[in-house]
Amino acid sequence: MFLIIAVIAAVFGFSGRSSATSEGAQALFFIFLGVFSLMLLAALIGGDQLRR
């Protein structure tokens, strides 16, 4: 979910329409990418514990 939102924000922000929009989209992209990576890592490490 986070990755999809980040990609959409990147498409609108990285196109160069507005510098403020671009900076905001880049920030959201990297924040969501980081959250996605942490959640993926947590699921891989503690996956067995979540299935109880």
TrEMBL record:
<keyword id="KW-1133">Transmembrane helix</keyword>
<keyword id="KW-1003">Cell membrane</keyword>
<dbReference type="Pfam" id="PF07043">
    <property type="entry name" value="DUF1328"/>
</dbReference>
<feature type="transmembrane region" description="Helical">
    <location>
        <begin position="29"/>
        <end position="47"/>
    </location>
</feature>
<keyword id="KW-0472">Membrane</keyword>
<protein>
    <submittedName>
        <fullName>DUF1328 domain-containing protein</fullName>
    </submittedName>
</protein>
<dbReference type="InterPro" id="IPR009760">
    <property type="entry name" value="DUF1328"/>
</dbReference>
<keyword id="KW-0812">Transmembrane</keyword>
